[in-house]
Amino acid sequence: MDFDVKDISLAEKGKLRIEWAEKDMPVLRQIRERFEKEKPLKGITISACLHVTTETANLMITLKAGGADVYLTASNPLSTQDDVAAALVKEFNIPVFAIHGEDRDTYYKHLYTVLDKKPNITMDDGGDLISTLHQERQDLIPNVIGGTEETTTGVIRFKAMEKDGVLKFPVIAVNDAYTKHLFDNRYGTGQSTIDGILRATNRLLAGSTFVVAGYGWCGKGVAMRAKGMGADVIVTEVDPLKALEARMDGFRVMPMIEAVKQADFIVTVTGNINVVDKHHFENMKDGCIVSNSGHFDVEINIKALEEMVVNKRKIRDYVDEYTLEDGRKIYILAEGRLVNLAAAEGHPAQVMDMSFANQALSAEYLVKNKGNLEPKVYKVPDELDFEVARLKLNTMGIKIDELTQQQKEYLASWQHGT
Length: 418
What we know:
single chain; eight-stranded mixed sheet; 15 strands; about 45% helix; NAD; Adenosylhomocyst_ase-like_sf; EC 3.13.2.1; one-carbon metabolism
């Protein structure tokens, strides 16, 4: 079997960690049990560019149980868990091409390798797989039934491709499922980002000034968790509605140029470029700790910072200290990459259970609707979203009410008044 991992001898440790995560993924487990019986993905080749973590491993195992030939590469060089990659290869016979800390050339070599498998379905986290396929491997497009995308960043990219008329096959925006972005983005990113910052720095959040750039679902989660740990939270935004929402939720709101003067911590979660830029570094408080939890490492302009400093050193794992000419020190976590996956372990399995259940069901949906979908970005069908929520509630022992026939008729009627 073709694969490229750091150390295959790490497989036993990785297998135990995969089993630990699986215990908290009961929705995906139920889907896997059905897939094993029905084999809805039989004969389908799936190339996935996702974070190589214990939770992703359970998704890969589920897809294989459904009959698919699965190939996995990393969507971020610093998020790969080498023991998990080894376990997938040795224990589950799933080819993986990912090494923690791999350079850019290796990252793309691995990406090209999984594309060479001629996928029928692509799975993306950030959009690199589909983007590369469209730009460099258009010969493979006739084989592709469709793709899925896990992140806000990737969905933005593919909607732009659709708008420009260059998207060649349907893509399901898994990120836009309610059971994904309302939970994964908010509760998952909220907890795992704080986890990454604390593991990297061992600093106290209580009493600190904590700046969150962006008040989408990820930003809401980070702000909520920072506030819960006693931080004074400032939100920066460009969207007046989100800025108003942040203020009504009890947070201070101001431009980044003002926030950096007070910030002990800054986290970017916008999906945009240069959110923390040169003029922000020039006005930044001494000792500020800056991190990113958006998908790509573009939100903090580290290149501009490096041109301003007189000294740089790694003071802790995942902490780079930059000293400016005036003596101020600025700390960048995880090289500006996803701090929750680079310095910690990413989202808890309980949250990824729903996200990856959506991935598995979306792959099945693409196969069932082969040839019936246009080259557009689609939301996860409501019936799949509701099914994931229903299964999750069942695993939590929670029951809910059902509408009576009278209530259904009332809601469907326009004739009933006051």
